[in-house]
Amino acid sequence: MRCMQFANFRLSRGLFLLSLCLFTATATRAQRSAAVPPITHETLQLAGLQKPAQILIDPWGVPHIYAQSENDVFFVQGYNAARDRLFQIDLWRRRGLGQLAAVLGPTFVEQDQASRLFLYRGDMQREWEAYGKSAQRIAGQFVAGINAYIDL
User: What is the reported pTM?
Assistant: First the structure.
């Protein structure tokens, strides 16, 4: 009998969590579709972009990137990431470097000290080579796109 009660509890809990997820997804979708700004057209000249590229934002707010070269795709992706999430990118950078206390206060000093213990101190050229032939170029283009947004 006890196993049956436990199974019913697990089933009830599972159904509750599933219902909660569905409700959250539906509410988020409704809120997202109501909050999506109207699509506007904007033309920018960005240093570092080799050929014209486009960011098309669909009705759900999802950006679609079109470019004529791989370098431009990653450049535009970095630009778009900065446009949408610059605060998050900066926060993650500070977290990785152990610099959160500088902006969030002394309660983060201990976390910053721990983060600094894990900073990579090896040969970066060997590290890049381990990632693949084009990893450093791709990351460089992405960062250049972020910087292009910051420089506007």
Answer: 0.70
Give residues with Cβ within 8 angstroms of 88, minimum separation 6: none
Which backbone phi and psi does 29 adopt, to 5 degrees? -65, -45
| Among the listed residues 34, 32, 54, 56, the one whose alpha carbon sits nearest the alpha carbon of residue 44 | 54
Q: What is the pLDDT along the chain (152 residues), one digit of tens a residue?
A: 555 454 444 545 555 555 555 556 555 555 555 555 655 677 888 888 999 999 998 888 899 999 999 999 999 999 999 999 999 999 999 999 999 999 999 999 999 999 999 988 899 999 999 999 999 999 999 999 999 999 98
Q: Which two tokens stand for residue 52?
A: 């014209």
